[in-house]
């Protein structure tokens, strides 16, 4: 495998790892916010903000990967 091929595989793996980590972290945060939070509305806003930020983060990585 040539070096550029290895970099492609590593970058794609990083995108998948970030997506998995954000999903697991989001599930834990969502459970915590809805179980122990005082306001369901605030929990929903916080969760939607987290999801939006995560999508932006992963989307930026994906676009950067495609731009190579």
Your description of this structure?
The two termini are 18 Å apart. The protein has helices spanning 3-36, 40-66. It is built from 2 helices and no strands. With 68 residues, the chain is mainly α. Helices cover 90% and strands 0% of the residues. It has a domain at 38-68. 0% of the residues are buried. Helix 1 (3-36) runs antiparallel to helix 2 (40-66). The model has no long low-confidence stretch (mean pLDDT 87).
List keywords for this structure.
single chain, 0% strand, mainly alpha
Write the layout of secondary structure elements.
Elements: H1 3-36, H2 40-66
Helix pairs in contact: 1-2
Structural class, judged by helices and strands? mainly alpha
Shape: elongated
- Averaged pLDDT: 87
Find the count of extended strands (DSSP E, 2+ residues): 0
Low-confidence stretches: none
Strand count, sense and closure of the main sheet? none
Q: How many alpha or pi helices?
A: 2
Outline:
By secondary structure, the protein is mainly α.
């Amino acid at each position: 495998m040539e070096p550029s091929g290895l970099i492609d595989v590593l970058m794609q793996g990083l995108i998948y790892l970030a997506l998995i980590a954000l999903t697991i972290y989001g599930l834990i945060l969502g459970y915590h916010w809805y179980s122990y939070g005082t306001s369901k509305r605030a929990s929903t806003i916080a969760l939607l903000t987290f999801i939006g930020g995560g999508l932006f983060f992963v989307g930026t990585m994906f676009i950067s990967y495609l731009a190579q």
